[in-house]
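Work Package 4 report. The design task specified in the project plan requires that, given a folded chain encoded as structure tokens, an amino acid be chosen for each position. We show below one input record used in the internal validation round.
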């Protein structure tokens, strides 16, 4: 188990996740089709070329999902009870096919659970950064995490 228990976190703890991922055309196409998203900017090369971006844009919900996924191994793997919510999601820069993404997480909130004495709420600020060190996605994730047995 790589995740941490509620009792092991402190406000301000910051992690740079080791796993990086270069986004492929297949990633974008499969995710877009699986989620029934018909946006031409994700699927139609000619429409994307005619846009202000001049190329296919990676589906933003893929970027968001990848960011969270890159964080799980270091944060909540094996200790998570449930994800409680995602807040303040922003995507300040576009992601393109071929971009390599990495993630960082910071603990910005800790709260004892009132209804579950064996768990607490950890709130993370997740950031996703491309190979140009540009922030491409960010959100707060509230998690219900087990306390140390």
């Amino acid at each position: 188990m790589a995740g941490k228990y509620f009792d092991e976190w402190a406000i301000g703890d910051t992690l740079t996740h080791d796993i990086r991922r270069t986004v492929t055309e297949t990633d974008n196409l499969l995710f877009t089709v699986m989620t029934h998203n018909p946006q031409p900017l994700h699927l139609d090369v000619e429409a994307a070329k005619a846009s202000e971006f001049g190329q296919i844009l990676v589906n933003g919900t893929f970027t968001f999902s990848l960011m969270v996924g890159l964080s799980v191994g270091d944060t909540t793997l094996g200790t998570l009870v449930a994800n409680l919510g995602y807040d303040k999601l922003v995507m300040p820069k576009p992601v393109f096919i071929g971009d390599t993404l990495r993630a960082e997480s910071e603990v910005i909130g800790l709260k004892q659970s009132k209804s579950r004495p064996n768990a607490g709420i950890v709130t993370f600020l997740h950031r996703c950064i491309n190979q140009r060190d540009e922030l491409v996605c960010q959100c707060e994730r509230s998690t219900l995490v087990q306390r140390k047995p």
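The beta strands are 14-16, 21-22, 80-90, 100-112, 119-129, 135-146. Validation will be extended to a larger panel in the next phase.
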